[in-house]
From TrEMBL:
Keywords assigned by UniProt, alphabetized: Methyltransferase, Transferase
Name of the protein: Demethylmacrocin O-methyltransferase
Entry annotated with the keyword Methyltransferase: yes
GO MF annotation, one: demethylmacrocin O-methyltransferase activity
Keyword Methyltransferase in record: yes
SUPFAM superfamilies: S-adenosyl-L-methionine-dependent methyltransferases
Catalytic activity, EC: 2.1.1.102
Example GO biological process: methylation
Amino acid sequence: MKIKTLAGKFFPDSLLISLGSNNNGRRFGFEGELNVKQDIVSKYGFDGELLDLFVENRGPAVHKWHHYIPIYDRYFSKFRGKKVRFLEIGVSDGGSLQMWRKYFGEDAVIFGVDIDPRCGNVNGISGQVRIGSQDDPKFLEAVVEEMGGVDAILDDGSHRMNHIRSSLEILFPKLADGGIYMIEDLHTAYWRRFGGGYRSKANFFNYVSDLVEDMHHWYHMHKIKHPAISDSCSSIHIHDSIVILEKAKNYKPTHSVIGVQG
Ligand SMILES: C[S@@+](CC[C@H](N)C(=O)[O-])C[C@H]1O[C@@H](n2cnc3c(N)ncnc32)[C@H](O)[C@@H]1O
């Protein structure tokens, strides 16, 4: 009997889920009656080209949660057909780099980074691949320099809490104004195998909560906790398992009364 099956026999589901057991993936595997495209269209009302690029992929594997597809399009579509400098953390088989190349177009500068040297095999196919760790400041800085700056970042790397935070703190200051920083698979924030846990201090959503407080520092006067991010983070979006930070100059808020007061 496999270890996973044995674990399922002796430990309650709640424990296996909180640990981040590999069985979690299976719990959410798509078993609907519709095909993948119909499922995404019917649930999320999204029928854009990115959906076709995903479902019609016959190249290296791309593994995505269905609800991510419209979210990607919502935040990344402004860069399509432009000379966007796009960096993906986590290359694996190179399937997503291929999808992004088709989505953003030939003018895009697409780089992927991965700790696994085997990912070097897909270097130069849909984008440039550099080998190193997402928590290594010198490595990431050198990659961004080679890219000539960065406009959009997608963190689909280790999904470990400490790595997500390190990459964000290294890369967000390097992001261009108007840039997008997206982190996916944040269900791992609730799984101990990834350094997270429900209500645990290291859960990345606690960090996001700090950013929300920083954004509103004008109104409570406590110290900004993460100035490297908060000084230029203009909005924070939370979706199921995805966080998006937009970068723009922040101004002290101000208000006016215009018109005749009663
Ligand atoms: C989920 S896969 C990426 C999948 C790819 N983005 C796709 O959609 O096809 C995660 C990748 O992160 C890489 N990874 C794990 N730890 C890392 C680290 N510390 N730095 C960079 N990459 C890492 C793994 O080697 C793996 O290839």
